[in-house]
Design goal:
9-stranded mixed sheet; about 325 residues; Spore Coat Polysaccharide Biosynthesis Protein SpsA, Chain A; 13 strands; about 40% helix; 2 domains; single chain; alpha/beta
Length: about 325
């Protein structure tokens, strides 16, 4: 299978200097490496041409964020497997082989992510993906190894291969035929949680999403937006609502939407009590944007095939904040 590793870059020369060496060292024998540049204004492109001439460069004309950036670039890449890699990922020896082996042996697996550990503390799972993503009844994402901001220590508990609900966009491997069949990422998301939407749509047409714990990468995290950045709060709350409108089956739709609006209000109140006023405003902006785009996303919903089996019947908010369950193994 032809495999392409595609790294999206925007003014990230510092990250390229730090992380490209491991990617070239441990990946170039099994894949062609590309950098998709989102109209950078720094010297990223010249740096790659000078120090990594074997890497292919695709120059996007605008910075359309994660979603549009990849959509624009991947139309020019001929490969069976796309491995979309954040520019702040350090890969390890033989990290790609177990992933490609699953793709070769299981035609129904369309998307895979490896184990993602924290580059700053390599014994801990990393926030963005950890050991594979799930989503609760109300559309809140969580991971094996990470529930909200609680990160587990890697003790081998997730050294397995397991079907999951969503794979992290930090290291997101997908069959090109499925990517193009579903028209890639939804560009209205701009960034954050567009990979959850794409995984949801992939599962709705009968494919599987898997986690491969025999492959490990390390993620710096927060290279674009820190967790404490209100813009990240805005994107996460808004985009999660977008995914609910597009993908939740009809029998759950109204219940989930109204419940989620109430829970978001509680989140805003929590930020208010903590005097994090910028995050309160971020949630309000997220809802204003959601209402503005509601009918647009209803039209998108009509064009999608929707699974009749909503996969989750629990509330991660209830289990985490009320019952105090901080680890994946303790969840009901």
């Amino acid at each position: 299978m032809k495999t392409a590793i595609v790294i999206l870059n925007w003014n990230g020369q510092r990250l390229l200097e730090q992380f490209l060496p491991s990617i070239v060292k441990y990946s170039s024998q099994e894949a062609t490496i590309y950098v998709a540049d989102n109209a950078s204004t720094d010297t990223s492109i010249q740096y790659i041409k000078t120090f990594f001439p074997s890497i292919k460069i695709i120059e996007n004309t605008t910075n359309g964020g994660y979603a549009k950036g990849y959509n624009d670039a991947l139309q020019f890449i001929d490969a069976d497997i796309y491995c979309l890699l954040n520019s702040d990922i350090e890969v390890t020896k033989n990290w790609l082989s177990p992933i490609l082996e699953i793709f070769k042996n299981d035609d129904q697996t369309a998307i895979i992510q490896p184990k993602i550990l924290d580059f700053k503390n390599k014994k801990k799972f990393e926030y963005a993906g950890a050991a594979g993503g799930f989503i609760d009844l109300y559309g809140y994402p969580y991971c094996r190894g990470r529930i909200f901001k609680d990160l587990e220590t890697d003790e081998g508990q997730f050294n397995d291969i397991k079907e999951i609900f969503w794979a992290s966009g930090a290291c997101f491997c997908i069959r090109s035929k499925v990517y193009h069949k579903l028209h890639g990422f939804d560009e209205d998301y701009f960034a954050h949680q567009e990979e959850i939407d794409l995984c949801w749509r992939t599962k709705n047409i009968g494919y599987k999403v898997k986690y491969v714990g025999t492959s490990t990468v390390f993620h710096l995290g927060g290279a674009t937006l820190q967790e404490t950045n209100p813009q990240k709060t805005f994107l996460n709350f808004r985009n999660s609502l977008f995914s609910i409108v597009k993908n939740v089956p009809k029998k759950w739709f109204l219940f989930v939407i109204f419940s989620r609006l109430i829970l978001d209000g509680i989140s805003a109140l929590k930020f208010l009590l903590e005097l994090k006023l910028k995050h309160v405003w971020a949630i309000l902006r997220a809802h204003f944007s959601f209402y503005k785009n509601f009918f647009k996303f209803l039209e998108k919903r009509k064009a999608l095939f929707k699974s009749q089996n909503y996969h989750a019947h629990t509330s991660i908010v209830w289990q985490y904040f009320v019952l105090g369950r901080k680890k994946f193994k303790d969840l009901e």
